[in-house]
Amino acid sequence: MQEVKARRRGTSRVSSKNQVTIPTDALRAAGIEVGERLVAHADGPGRVVFEREVDVLAEFSGVLTGAFAPDELAGLRNEWD
Length: 81
Hints:
alpha+beta; 12% strand
């Protein structure tokens, strides 16, 4: 039978491939869910901060709704031909 490794709860180790497993308690507390993309930033010696990747299209999608009259964009597109 394989022996269980003794580790402190909530800690991780950097693998030879520079991979780190983030403890589930920390992920839950941050509200991060499976499949989300994260960006890593160094925040001084010994400190790395993960943030959700910002989806620029989702952030600005629909911002200009109502900025043009209903047929105005179609008229502008017809000018291109």
